[in-house]
Amino acid sequence: MSGGHLYDAPGPRGRRRIRFAAVAAGLALVGLAALVVRRLAANGQFVAAKWSPLFDPNDPSFADLWRLFGGGLLHTLTAAALAMALSLPFGVFIATTRISASRWYRWMIVGTVETLRAVPVVIAIFFAYQVLPTYGLKLPLLWYIVIGLTAYNSVVISEIVRAGVLAVPKGQSDAAAALGLTRAQSMRFILLPQAFRSMLPALISQLVVILKDTSLGAFISYEELLRRGLIAIQTLHNPIQTYLVIAAIFIGINYLVSRLAIYAEARLSTRRPVPPSEDRQINSPVTATVP
Amino acid sequence: MGVITDNVGLYADGLLGTLKICGLAAVAALLLGIVLAAFRVSPVAPLRATGTAYITLVRNCPLTIVLFFFAFGLPEVGINGAYFSFGVAGLAVYTAAFVCEAVRSGIGAVDAGQVEAARAIGLTFGQSLRLIVLPQAVRAVIPPLGNVVIAMIKNSAILGAFGVGGELYSVANTLNSARGEPALPVYTGVVIGYLIIIIPAGLLLRILEKRMTVTR
Fold first, then answer.
1. Is pTM beyond 0.80 here?
2. Does A103 touch chain B (CB under 8 A)?
3. ipTM of this complex
4. Which member of A104, B47, B69, B183 lies 3.0 to 4.6 Å from B73 by CB, making a disulfide possible if both were Cys?
């Protein structure tokens, strides 16, 4: 909790006031919830037909529905895994060439990185989806998403890798040079392995971003989880309920992944007593700080 | 590339539309985000819990689902509106979670000694927040907040994919899908449009960042 130092430990009057505020806030929340429930009820959102296909195993469509969602989730995870697996080597490649390249070459890379970073992921996906086929490159839908996600995430990951490599103490590359390792060898055997450890949390939280962005596949009718949800809605006519379930699945997975990132961060910082760079605090920046 | 030059007007309209959406959403997200950040540092437990729950749920949920919920979920309970307002509202609700975290980390970046000193000279919670913490937090908040806004501008493209007309991405839809213009130049034009917004925004942010850094 970051607000702890903002106020004194409250005295008896302060505690009373806080207790009063807590009760008032609690009542306000309950009131708000009641309003939402009333609104839902007034519009017939609590009828069994809207919920039972999702939650009642005895409902005739329950099994089919969850098979549909299960397959969709599998597609979502496949797209995310492929995008991550491709972005990582590309990112490492971009970062290492950017660090070691000569000046002109470096400007070219910086230009490409900045351009790709400015392109919205949804545009990158549509670009792949609409442009590649006009050049005879007809791929399964999955690959347009993977290409779009990789184009964007490679450059994001390259920045993570670059920061990681630059954060390795200078003595390491000096020592590598003194041992007679070439720059490429020093990068591969000395700098990257150490950098990789320190950037693991950031990489894991980038996975959350990728997972969320796979849902853009719904727009090009790739049947990932969200698309499958939309398909289900067409026959069940229960958008609110289905969105809630789909959102809950996404939130659950992403929550676990971001906990993993925090765990990795905590482990790393206990293992290595080296002071972390100044803008790093445990718990906050690891989980993707940008929408 | 004739498609781009022939349709400069259309692209310019799209650019303005994107800016309009983002301006509205940014103001709303900023206000909501600041309220949430205040919740998260408040001594009142239910407010803190509300803030934390909001952040956890919204940050882990794809923006696409938030938008679908607004556009197709809300009308189910009798809340109707134009796609445009649903789009802006969804974008703001989503971005507010990230604004909140940026603001909170800014408050956290203010040295604890500053607050202790403020308390020691007898300032109240409100006074120390207003006079001591926030002025310093603003400086620390500018860089992360700027990144959030830039990311939001890019996210606004999803509204176009959604059918909110009159923004940059929807231009591609009009030209490519409806009029059958070739995809490559059409999309290149859209990308250029985003570069025109994002790159100066990034440079501006970097300048601000340099001006605002204080050696602590």
1. yes
2. no
3. 0.89
4. B69
